[in-house]
Structure to design on (169 residues):
């Protein structure tokens, strides 16, 4: 890490054609296009925003999770998560109970009313992923998942370096 401080990465601004080889740009473009394609369908079928649907999905796959953990996992600010959580709680899709081990935290869980919607969102999510990745062989898909997991484990390290002022000229 000290090497990064004494020898910062020096890059010139990317030209448009260079963006095709810029991994973070590709990830951003991919994410934005996938979300843009899903948002109208989610709104039409479920009445939920993408963020609300993501809350339902994550709470359904991780019962007892807290809003702070959702914010971290989704990479969204606490205010956006709070609005989404409040809405799905108001709709009766998610329950929010005080955490007996931590007074300032609430544990979230899918309600009986939210279970059907969770199943619908989960099916939609997995079916889209399966189709999206169908251009890769099974081996490539496995490799892709492993690479994503490795990169994800490095995000915290990168963010620490960013907070220290690394990567700026």
């Amino acid at each position: 890490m000290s090497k990064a401080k004494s020898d910062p990465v020096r890059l010139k601004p990317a030209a448009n054609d260079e963006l095709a080889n810029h991994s973070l740009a590709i990830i951003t473009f991919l994410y934005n296009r996938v979300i843009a394609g899903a948002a109208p369908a989610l709104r039409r079928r479920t009445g939920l925003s993408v963020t609300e649907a993501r809350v339902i999905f994550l709470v359904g796959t991780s019962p007892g999770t807290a809003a702070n953990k959702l914010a971290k996992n989704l990479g969204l600010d606490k205010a956006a998560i709070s609005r989404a959580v409040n809405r799905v709680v108001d709709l009766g899709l998610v329950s929010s109970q005080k955490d007996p081990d931590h007074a300032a935290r609430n544990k979230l869980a899918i309600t009986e009313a939210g279970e059907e919607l969770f199943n619908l969102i989960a099916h939609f999510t997995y079916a889209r992923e399966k189709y999206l990745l169908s251009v890769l062989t099974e081996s490539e898909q496995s490799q892709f998942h492993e690479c994503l997991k490795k990169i994800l484990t490095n995000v915290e390290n990168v963010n620490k370096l960013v907070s220290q002022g690394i990567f700026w000229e």
Summary: Confidence is low (pLDDT under 50) at residues 1-8. The domain at 17-131 is CATH 1.10.10.10 (Arc Repressor Mutant, subunit A). Residues 96 and 108 are 5 Å apart (CA to CA).
